[in-house]
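Researcher: Quick one. four chains, 300 residues in total.
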Amino acid sequence: MFRGVTHINLDAKGRMAFPSRYRERLGALCDGHLVVTVDRDPCLLVYPLPEWEHIEQKLVRLPSLNRSARRLQRLLIGHATECQLDGSGRILVPPPLRDFAGLDKRTVLIGQGNKFELWGEAAWTARRDEWLAEAADSDDLPGDLESLSL
Amino acid sequence: MFRGVTHINLDAKGRMAFPSRYRERLGALCDGHLVVTVDRDPCLLVYPLPEWEHIEQKLVRLPSLNRSARRLQRLLIGHATECQLDGSGRILVPPPLRDFAGLDKRTVLIGQGNKFELWGEAAWTARRDEWLAEAADSDDLPGDLESLSL
DNA sequence: CCAAGAGTGGGGAAAAGTGGCAAGAAATGG
DNA sequence: CCATTTCTTGCCACTTTTCCCCACTCTTGG
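Model:
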């Protein structure tokens, strides 16, 4: 499981160096083959290739004539780009995706279990504060969540 | 599986050069024989020939008296045009189809699993942003999608 | 304080995109 | 029916970009 927030600077060529604590596991899990795609929020998702293929299977089986299904396929599969860790444990974040998430230099990498999220630093802190504010007002969680015990 | 966005310029003759990462696979899969047709959205669909034949089978079997089925057949089969990769990995996008999708120079090729979508650059970004905005407001996804875990 | 590992930047080689040119085919006019 | 012109298509070469590797510096831990 990947966890934790890490602040990472993209270099001038848009490359992102993975924190060294993940590198060995990424090597073992997927030999450095990663897939980067977009989320419905303005951030990128980074999956180990086998993990992504699993998701992709589920997506392609959705009915093609259903509009929301089609939309999801286009967003997720359409933006999914394969990347390979280089000798220094970096990936090149594809320019269209970098642009999508509004990433410049200062970014934040967030471990999310089977995947990572990559945010622009400013966008991340803004969103986080926003979520905290919302969570404080509303106690109306959907049913399944009500019963969750932390 | 084909995935990912690629920005591609059509040349003055309306030819589109496939990204090199796909070329080997296209050679193996269909020996460079592709079928281009239209979608219900203003974009083109590009299938490897065997894959298209499979789709076409399903389409011709639809009931001829059903109006929507008939409409689908006319759109998809009616516009389907066979194209062949040239020695440089390019196809000539047929002028009527180029016109249909409003393609000029700047286009975007989107991998969608078993096929590609080809959009005009402006149309693509406009649509994508529109989908994201919709996706943000409405959490009412059709049943199958609700339970999807990414 | 020294050493080792991680982060950063730059440079070079190879491949990919783009544009032009030439040859062949088709169509039209004499 | 033949010849000429134009349009199309395939090929080749050049330029640009991308990607990979190496070297240097900074930081951290012993």
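Residues 13, 15, 86-88, 92 of chain B lie near DNA strand D (CB under 10 Å from a C1').
Researcher: Thanks, that's what I needed.
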